[in-house]
Design goal:
Length: 609
């Protein structure tokens, strides 16, 4: 049996076929050299975009072609390297292609500023005159809407000089946290000691031994607490950078400045926080349920990751996973399934872990080839769920690339996670339906509930902290590490029902902010929560067979890629991210998962809850 599995893992069938991108490394190199030679040809259009509709159209055509080839070259080098990160040739290829990327960016850097300066009436005339420009309407609009936030040429030069300092706070944070910060040694239950860095923390915080996981939290956060002042100065540096950008670009707030990059209204962000606040009782119900299952008289922050169910023994071979995923995604229709089957049959997926292979999972697309998926498949339910998730991204890319021009196919991050989380939800529905083993079903339910806690509530909690600290910085209030910890602690206490006695938040927990690198991504994490809710709403409608939903999902959502902004794209599915409805749908779903959990516990495992 083991022998069989080794043979399967080694089999070509489960490795992606990079030959669909380039037949050989030599082929890649020839294409790279060709691209390099062609880059400067785009400069022929410099200072000419405002002269004629054809100039603008030809320039954007050429720019698309260069970008398509570049992204293909980039994917090949990076995917080759990800197969075995120890190999030096692919690493060198990645560096070569990065340099080409910089060259291409520099050469094309005149395009957007020139598009901004063309008179509106002239642009309108261009669009009527040259109908091939229709593929670029959204691109042009996306560039031109930033006009009110763009300074004159001289000022822009100064702003771009200041840009050299932009990454300083984030760089110092990352180097300090990942290299220089002294980490404690953690004593394991078996007497061995390990360095308690971030990955060890993630591994051990979910230990079933309570005393042990308490010491994991205490040791880990005590180490961060020692550097509270330094971490505070780093994060405050980032906030000052954002206040500077808001001011020079005429935004009312740092939030508006960050969200405007993707044309997301601030209302969407604030609506998320309000809806979550109005429904903290749903999180509290879940936390009480956890407390009961864990049999704790008092639950602390260090108990949050404790396993609720025995580690499920059930494993799925990759063929079983494929069958389950195909069954689960059947509500999306035969065309969708046909492509999913192609992904397996035509080797779009690199399935198993191997020495040197990059960890985790991702999906990547080369516009005129097909998407690829990297997995480190181990056969657990979580792995099947990751497979469904990555297939969601891959199918989004597949439909976008098939139906849109290159620029219009690039969907924004706000939409990306919707397609993947939707697939996870459909999978969970099918897996729970198929299983007649209560423990297995319980494991699936708990997996879904935990995803909801960590994606919807926890990310919103980060988003709220981010908003508050930016507002204080905008008011000119200095923020020390200690101030940041106090603010963070206040938010934690509200979310986790400290005053209601649901989860006891200890003072030391307030330092958690210092361990979160996402705070340097500037108003990014809220999108995990919004995507989760949009996906919850879509999957419920698809599962309930709402008329026309499947067709709309494929045609108006997956196939539209990035041809419109995120909020109106979701609106075409009847999902309004400025309203309470998508959130209500997620909370309703979470409540029904808890009803089901309680029912299984009461009926089968003799636990009354
Ligand atoms: Zn994803």
């Amino acid at each position: 049996m083991e022998q069989d599995q080794t043979e399967i893992i080694k089999s070509e069938k489960y490795k992606w076929n990079l030959k669909d991108l380039y037949a050989s490394i030599e082929d890649w190199r020839n294409s790279k050299n060709n691209l390099e030679k062609r880059i400067d040809s785009i400069l022929e259009f410099k200072d000419k975009l405002g002269n004629a509709a054809d100039n603008l159209c030809q320039c954007l055509n050429l720019y698309s072609l260069l970008e398509i080839e570049y992204s293909k070259l980039f994917s090949y080098a990076n995917q080759l390297s990800d197969q075995d990160t120890r190999e030096s040739l692919p690493l060198a290829m990645c560096q070569e292609i990065d340099q080409i990327g910089v060259k291409l960016n520099v050469a094309a850097s005149f395009i957007d500023p020139e598009i901004i300066t063309i008179d509106s009436a002239v642009i309108g005339g261009y669009l009527k005159e040259n109908e091939n420009l229709k593929d670029y309407i959204h691109y042009i609009d996306n560039v031109r809407r930033l006009k009110p936030n763009t300074r004159n040429t001289v000022e822009e030069k100064i702003v771009s000089q200041a840009g050299l300092m932009k990454e300083t706070a984030a760089d110092i944070y990352s180097i300090f946290k990942n290299s220089d910060m002294l980490r404690p040694m953690l004593k394991l239950v078996d007497g061995r000691s390990v360095l308690l860095d971030d990955s060890a923390f993630t591994l051990y915080r979910s230990d079933s031994n309570r005393e042990f996981r308490k010491s994991v939290f205490t040791e880990y956060y005590t180490a961060y607490k020692k550097y509270e002042r330094t971490f505070g100065a780093q994060l405050y540096g980032q906030l000052k950078k954002n206040v500077f950008e808001k001011n020079v670009r005429n935004y009312k707030s740092c939030l508006e400045s960050a969200l405007n990059a993707n044309n997301i209204p601030c209302e969407v962000y604030k609506n998320l926080i309000n809806c979550v606040h109005d429904n903290l009782s749903v999180l509290h119900r879940y936390l009480r349920l956890r407390k009961k299952i864990l049999g704790l008289a008092e639950m602390h922050y260090y108990d949050l990751y404790a396993p609720l169910v025995k580690k499920a023994d059930k494993t799925y071979t990759i063929d079983e996973a494929r069958n389950l995923v195909v069954k689960a995604l059947a509500p999306l229709g035969s065309d969708y399934l046909e492509t999913i089957n192609q992904a397996f049959d035509n080797r779009w997926i690199d399935v198993y872990a191997g020495t040197g292979k990059t960890p985790g999972g991702y999906s990547t697309d080369s516009y005129d080839v097909h998407p690829y998926i990297l997995m480190n498949y181990k056969g657990k339910y979580e792995d099947v769920s990751t497979l469904a998730h990555e297939l969601g991204h891959a199918m989004h890319s597949h439909y976008s690339s098939k139906n849109q021009s290159f620029f219009n196919a690039q969907y924004p991050i706000f939409l990306a996670e919707v397609a993947s989380i939707n697939n996870e939800a459909l999978l969970a529905e099918e897996a729970a339906r198929e299983s007649d083993n209560p423990e297995e079903r319980l494991a699936i339910l708990v997996h879904q509930l935990e995803t909801c806690r960590t994606t919807l509530f926890r990310q919103t909690q980060f988003a709220e902290f981010e908003l508050r600290i930016h507002e204080l910085a905008e008011e000119g209030k200095p923020l020390t590490g200690q101030d940041l910890s106090e603010l963070y602690l206040d938010i934690l206490k509200v979310y986790y029902g400290h005053d209601k006695g649901i989860v006891m938040i200890d003072d030391l927990d307030g330092i958690e902010w210092a361990s979160i690198p996402h705070l340097y991504y500037d108003f990014y994490v809220f999108q995990y929560a919004t995507s989760y809710c949009a996906a919850a709403d879509i999957s419920e409608k698809i599962i309930n067979g709402e008329e026309g939903m499947r067709e709309k999902y494929i045609r108006e959502f997956l196939s539209s890629g990035g041809s419109n902004y995120a909020i109106p794209t979701l609106q075409r599915l009847g999902i309004d991210m400025t309203a309470a409805a998508p959130y209500d749908s997620a909370f309703k779903k979470m409540n029904s998962l808890m009803d089901e959990t309680e029912k299984i516990l009461a009926e089968n495992l003799g636990q009354s809850v």
